[in-house]
Write a structure and sequence with these properties.
There is one protein chain. The protein is of the alpha/beta class. It has a domain of 151 residues: Rossmann fold (3-Layer(aba) Sandwich). It contains 9 helices and 8 strands. A 5-stranded parallel sheet has the order 2-3-1-4-8. Strand 5 and strand 6 form a beta hairpin. It is globular and about 45 Å long. The two termini are 12 Å apart.
Amino acid sequence: MNIILCGPPGAGKGTQAGYIVKNFNLYKVSTGDLLRDEIKNNTDLGNKIKSKLDQGLLVSDDIINNLIVKILSDKKYYNRLIFDGYPRNLNQAKSLDLLVKKYNQKISCVLSLNIDKESIIKRILGRLVCTKCGLTFNKYFNPPQKENYNCNLIYLKTRTDDNEKTIKNRFDTYTKKTAPIINYYIEQKILHEIDGTREINRIYDEIRSIITSLET
């Protein structure tokens, strides 16, 4: 199956995607990670991407779609993808539909994490990302502990774009450009709306139930 996980920045998509990947043997497609890899390589494209991300803006659809084609055309990921934070607007959603059909696949469900702006600001300002293994934690809600984190604490960093001004810009961008895809997937009858303000485990319990029901 292929799953889309959507919601505003800081809604917990990365954390939930990690659980889903581990328990359902799916491969996570995070355009944010792909773009940050480009930035890390210090290419001209990476520098342009960094400038946009630091301002809370989105990169062009053409760049994103080309990254997605590489994933969908790879047979080892056939019908076992979870899209974390993609598509981000209606054009990308329609493009993804065309691409999955082209490669004889389908979107099984869309999971939408709903959360308010104030909660998101606190979540993101407390976010810590491991530069070694990629795991995400939060110093307020989900601090790294021995049982869930094996790397050295020195690898935990905050992202350069995690500041209050940028967070507000990103939330507003999401509301204007990404939220309209909710209606698009409601019409397809594959959208599941989830309360993203609850504890991580309770959110995942609901997600696991939804995915399990699709497998039966």
